[in-house]
Write a structure and sequence with these properties.
There is one protein chain. The chain is of the alpha+beta class and 64 residues long. The protein has one domain. The protein has two helices and two strands, in the order βαβα. A two-stranded parallel ribbon has the order 1-2. Helix 1 links the parallel strand 1 and strand 2. The N and C termini lie close together (10 Å). The relative contact order is 0.26.
Length: 64
């Protein structure tokens, strides 16, 4: 699981897709993109990771 502010919002959609698919292929099972990730990146991550994409914001509690 990766939790963080991925700071990908200023990248091209092609780059965001490549990075997201690479993370998935590396075996990352879940991602929790926070606010600095960018809405377009969050959308793409949720498309790639499906139920493994958890939307959260600062202060939320994620039970592992």
């Amino acid at each position: 699981m990766l939790i963080g502010e991925f700071h990908l919002r200023d990248n091209t959609e092609k780059t965001i897709i490549r990075i997201t698919e690479d993370l998935h292929q590396l075996g990352v099972g879940k991602v929790v993109p926070l606010h600095c990730t960018g809405e377009n990146t969050v959308r793409i991550m949720c498309e790639v990771f499906g139920a493994g994409c958890i939307r959260a914001k600062e202060g939320d509690v994620i039970k592992l």
